[in-house]
Amino acid sequence: MNKELQGIDPSVGNFHYDTAYALDAGVGLDEKTVQYISAAKEEAPWLLNFRQKALKVFQSKSLPLHWAPAEIANIDFAKLRYYLAKGGPVSRSWDDVPEDVKRTFERLGVPEKERKYLAGVEAQFDSESAYSRIQENLTKQGVIFVGSTEGLKHFPDIFRPYFGRVIPTDDNLFSALNSAVFSGGSFIYVPPGVKVKQPLQAYFRINAENSGQFERTLIIADEGSEVTYIEGCTAPRFDTTNLHSAVVELIAKKGAKIQYITVQNWSTNVYNLVTKRAVAEEAAEVRWIDCNIGSKLTMKYPGVVLKGRKARGEVLSIALANTGQHQDTGAKMIHVAEETTSNIVAKSISIGKGRSSYRGLVHIPSGLKGCKNNTQCDALLINTESRTDTYPAIRVTGDLASVQHEASVSKVSEDQIFYMQQRGLTEAEAMSLSVNGFVNELVRAFPMEYSIELKRLIDIEMTGAIG
Fold first, then answer.
1. Residue 108 has pLDDT above 80, yes or no
2. Where are the domains of the chain?
């Protein structure tokens, strides 16, 4: 059975079909760009006002050159396209998807995966969703799974009270940028007590060169509900820069559980600069599972604000950086209630001249009783020129919390590789076995279909890695 999944195989997304766009905001970002996007989406006046204020915030901020990876300085915002869309309504039937878009998603295997194991699918092509569908039984239970554009139009009473509440517009430069030009993304609402047993999945495809994708995702799990959301990302390889700058907000209410899984395999001309944050209320649980493989530069630090007593947050991440790539990833855990627990496990692999960095924050203020955090950062270097860095920040005041931090850096043992080669394995097979053993604990946290492909990807990446 073919288990090749979108967002995993490094070659699966590297293709491009010419596409005709009905809507194009042009190159560059100014007031007219924002007005064009809002008019094209037929938005309410309050949303245009929101965008205009966000644009001013973006224009007032600068790139965080004092701490961010140096590669970020290469982004030229004036040369990007901020809105490209086919136009027309979102298709509910695969037969109604425009042919040029359908060809792309069929090659990525979207319809096959939907039939096999997904409860719903949202497929975004450049700036807008092309296809959106959820199982009928979930709709009857009150579950909402649509694009953010539809969510704002058709479910404003649910969407608007939480919009921009977890991640304010002025949180950082890229949250301001997203707030000004956002389009697409997912809106999910799960009613009290409803447990969505199969994953909901979104596919994000950048198809045009010199373009940006700025989806905005909001997931609300009401009291006692459960949901798993998976996002996959691909783009063809261009010689020009593409930018992906998303904002993701999660709200887990009392006793709710949200699991958010990312399998990122952007092409190596994409700058992936996203802001992801969750709020966990009393006895709620939020789990981020993050796999960062592609892109030229990734800056991503999923966070959880542990707002309610006995809330739990977890980030499990794998980052693989090959030559020409910098994976700057990590996590943020903000404890603001008693008896809250957080866990961070980050594993990175640097190959060739690749660079990986862990950047984390754990904050526990004084006076909170029974708070616990565990942070574990492990890095594996494959070559003498590969690099890894760790920038942990742990801020704990008072003596009522329990915090532990562990970090390690290791190299693949040449003796171990030699030993396995003497047992009949090739150099690449021996390397893959060592690396898969390094990340095995985290890979098992992914759904089975993805864990199989992650291991296969490592096999591909390890070919010729020693040198």
1. no
2. 23-300, 421-467
